[in-house]
Design a protein that fits this description.
heterodimer; A: 195 residues; alpha/beta; Rossmann fold; five-stranded parallel β-sheet; 8 strands; B: 252 residues; mainly alpha; 11 helices; elongated
Chain lengths: 195, 252
């Protein structure tokens, strides 16, 4: 079942961040939402995550879906290692499976266990957050600028890993980079204009 | 920070200096009955430690005061968790905690001695002194949780117990730890004072009281040293256990 949003409105302190946003996200495909900063794309994802309630509008097709997300911030437990951060949200993911996922995202094996993620570089923390999201067997993946801060080479590797792990899953990718949307094989690109 | 100027811990040379100063002052005023030297205190402590009564008294006082302290940790933490979830309870408890924190210990002791037996007095007073500290610290810690991590837990539907243990607890732990450190010392001070007033059998308080009556200054210092050592041991032990728990919990 496709995910359908109709007439979504959200305002903060009288300022409309989303003003009647409508879109349909095809099941099992990747949709990119392209917009400049401040256009309300993160607000849209927060609403889809259930962290905000819209002031108006409807969302259909969310019932019973298991979500997974990469937030704009990494939101990792700083004192825990990479494997523990993954297993916190995906306890069914065995340690070896977590390690394979982290290795696929180029986190060196010796850094995966025992080292708190607060000691990681920004790029490594970002990749750990991606690995965490991919470890969850979800129906809907929400990615808020997941590749931000990664160098070109690492980004290509991360994109390939995300594509592989989310094949035939519904993915909503928020980005301001058209090239990134193309690399993720987005079947449709939806724009939100800044208000 | 400069290590030389930034160190607030106890240096051995400084302890040595004050002990030497005390020893010299004691030796210079030998004829004065109130003045004892550190050597006199250590000799008296050694003599006391050879008696069964010493170990029974220290053991029973330890049991009473530590029970009060542990109860304050459990009740204070539980109340703080409940108050964080229920704003009305937080409002209800605020004046009570303020009153407990500001009313002098001796007023509590005098009131409590009417209500409970001398043996229970130290437990009750230790509990009363530790409770507002643990409550306030844990409540502050809960208020400082990272809202981004709480949202992450919601989105990934992390079960409540795992969320509390893995996401919330590490953020509250520094506040809990600080509460333990302060309340352990305070419980021992207040508990010992309660024993001196209540004078239960087999207690450090009884020996302190007798030392006062018979002007046994060496005994007074020796028993005070016992209180200091037991207080430090309690503090170090609970902090060690808390740190072990925190360390093991990080990578579950």
């Amino acid at each position: 079942m496709n995910l359908r949003i109709e007439g979504l409105v959200k305002q903060y302190d009288g300022r409309r961040v989303l003003d009647g946003f409508s879109a349909e996200f095809p099941e099992g495909k990747t949709t990119a939402i392209l917009a400049p900063s401040g256009a309300g794309k993160t607000t849209l994802l927060r609403i889809l995550c259930g962290l905000e309630r819209p002031d108006a509008g409807t969302i259909r097709g969310m019932e019973g879906r298991r979500l997974s997300a990469v937030f704009q911030e990494d939101r990792l437990l700083p004192d825990s290692d990479a494997v523990s951060n993954i297993r916190l949200v995906a306890p069914a993911c065995e340690v070896e499976e977590c390690r394979q996922l982290l290795s696929a995202l180029r986190i060196p094996a010796q850094e995966q266990r025992g080292k708190p993620v607060r000691e990681f570089s920004g790029g490594m923390r970002r990749r750990t957050a991606i690995a965490r999201a991919l470890a969850v067997k979800a129906d809907l993946y929400l990615f808020d600028e997941p590749f931000r801060g990664l160098d070109e080479d690492t980004k290509l590797c991360a994109v390939a890993c995300v594509r592989e792990k989310t094949r035939e899953k519904t993915v909503i990718l928020v980005t301001h980079d058209e090239r990134e949307a193309a690399e993720m094989d987005a079947v449709q690109k939806i724009g939100i204009t800044a208000r | 920070m400069n290590k030389r100027t930034g160190h607030n811990g106890i240096r051995l040379w400084a302890v040595g200096f004050w002990l030497a100063a005390w020893q010299i002052a004691g030796m210079l005023s030998r004829e004065h009955v109130f003045f004892v030297t550190p050597a006199d205190v250590m000799a008296r402590l050694l003599a006391l430690s050879r008696t069964l009564d010493f170990w029974q008294s220290a053991g029973m006082s330890y049991l009473r005061i530590t029970s009060g302290f542990l109860l304050s940790v459990i009740i204070g933490t539980g109340l703080a968790a409940a108050a964080a979830a229920l704003p009305r309870l937080r409002e209800l408890l605020a004046p009570a905690m303020l009153a407990i924190r500001t009313v002098p210990v001796v007023s509590f002791v005098i009131l409590a001695i009417i209500l409970v037996s001398p043996r229970q007095l130290a437990v009750l007073i230790s509990l009363t002194m530790g409770l507002p500290i643990m409550y306030t610290n844990v409540l502050d810690g809960i208020g400082q949780r990272d809202p981004e991590l709480m949202e992450m837990a919601r989105v990934f539907r992390i079960p409540r117990l795992r969320r509390v243990l893995r996401v919330d607890a590490p953020l509250v732990l520094p506040y809990f730890r600080a509460g333990l450190k302060v309340s352990a010392g305070l419980c021992w001070k207040a508990g010992a004072a309660a024993e001196v007033i209540g004078v239960p059998a087999m207690s450090i308080g009884l020996h302190l009281y007798q030392a006062k009556i018979y002007i046994e200054t060496a005994d007074l210092f020796a028993w005070t040293l016992v209180i200091v050592l037991l207080s430090l041991a309690t503090e170090k032990l609970v902090l060690f256990l808390t740190d072990c728990l925190a360390k093991s919990q990080r990578n579950w």
